[in-house]
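Pipeline run #58 for the internal structure catalog. This entry was flagged by the ingest filter as a single-chain record with no existing model, so it goes straight to prediction. Upstream metadata was stripped on purpose; only the residue string is passed forward. Reviewer on rotation: M.T. Logging verbosity set to normal.
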Amino acid sequence: MPSAWRGFVSFGLISFPVRLYPAARTSRVPLHQLHSVCHTRLKQPLYCPTCKRIVDRSEVVKGYQNENGKYVLIDKEEIKKITPDSGRAMEILAFVKMSEIDPLYFDSSYFLVPEDAGKKPYQLLLNALEDTHKVGIAKITMHQREYTVFLRPYDHGLAVHTMHFANEIREAPGYGDSTGVKLSPKEIKLAEQLVDSLSTEFDIQKYHDEFETRLRALIAAKEKGREVAVIPHPKRAPVIDMMSALKKSLAKSGTAAHRRPMQAKPVTSRTKRTPRRAAS
């Protein structure tokens, strides 16, 4: 798998060579747009309405449209001239507590892999972050754009996550507004018991894309000329009696006994874990 970035990580006077690899990728069944008459796949050509012809990709340039509707052309060499030092060096600017970072600020994920010459300082940084439960904040330039990133320990290595900035976190109408909502102590207690009765250890293998599985089954069935049974969707009525609904939910979960919530243990390089399965 080709690396997304290659350069150096530095903190203080320590610097070591690394490569950055995408940590996850979305897996989806590709559905293409077809012509309903002949079932031919439709293409979206690069068409110039001024020249009235299809344009080759070698003729494409980038440009920014200003307030007057005109374009300011930018070429590759000009982009290179303004690329900051983070194009080759990922300098750690600060270290913060992991508990202070809301997951909402995490964007894309990468694995940071050291070159042979950088294995010792890489391990030194990894151990320091594990022992202090902290995350490094750095800057990096990839794909002609500068990102602020988090470096954190993950599965015996360092994971890198690009950051959503504060101005990128959007607002939703009515979000967080609890005006006029009153909860009784009994309702709160039953809700906590319900949460406790459904609590378990997190196991990523338990979760998968059910729609994707059904879509693949639908395609396989249609290839063989078979029909696929419709998935039943039970209707749910609005909750009127909260206490009654909570009690029924507890009974359905199998137990109403209070169990002490499990707490996640901090992961360190010395914690024994099941090896991660290699990506296919």
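catalog note: Helices lie at 76-81, 119-132, 185-197, 210-223, 242-253.
catalog note: Confidence is low (pLDDT under 50) at residues 255-280.
status: ready for reviewer M.T.
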